[in-house]
Amino acid sequence: MSLTPSNMLPLGTTAPEFTLQDTISGNNYSLNELKGIKATVIMFICNHCPFVKHVNPQLAQLARDYKSKGVNYIAISSNDTENYPEDAPIHLKQQAIDNDFKFPYLYDQTQAVAKAYDAACTPDFYVFDAELKLVYRGQLDDSRPGNGKPLNGSDLRYALDCIIEQKENTQTQKPSMGCNIKWK
């Protein structure tokens, strides 16, 4: 495991379009089909990373808390499954079931989507507004495996609340930290 920070894509960037297969349903979905009315959270996660395992419960809770507020969540795994078979789609599906994810969990086999988003780590979070313009990128909160800080999604929740309440996010956006994406 290599501790890696997110790359902090420039705010205002338009979300790159994609169509990927959902590991849960087997259906292909595009960004336009999955985007939220008010906001869209795109998160690069995987099955084996201890940082992702740490935040899985909060990911599920956030999706439940914000779905009715017009926020959709999209999880994407872009890891090389040849060298990291625990991140194969069948295991991603099981991860989604085990954690009660109520959002699509897409598999980026070519890694083109991760590259288009300049994703660097798992977990890596991006929040786009209704026009699919980037308004937040960075960490979920200050909690990391073993650091004793509360896992509450405070940074991501604040960013989403700002969108919903139509106010400017004035908090410092801190990079996410986690395992590096496993490139081919």
Question: What's the Cα radius of gyration?
Answer: 15 Å
Number of domains: 1
The residue fraction in helices comes out at 25-40%
- CATH architecture designation: 3-Layer(aba) Sandwich
How are strands sequenced across the largest beta sheet?
3-2-6-5-4-8-9
What does the model show?
This protein is an alpha+beta fold. The protein has a single domain, classed as Glutaredoxin (3-Layer(aba) Sandwich), CATH 3.40.30.10. Helix content is 26%, strand content 23%. The strands form two sheets. It has a seven-stranded mixed β-sheet. It has a three-stranded antiparallel β-sheet with strand order 1-10-7, covered by helices on one side.
Can you describe this structure in just a few lines?
With 184 residues, this protein is an alpha+beta fold. Helices cover 26% and strands 23% of the residues. The model has no long low-confidence stretch (mean pLDDT 95).
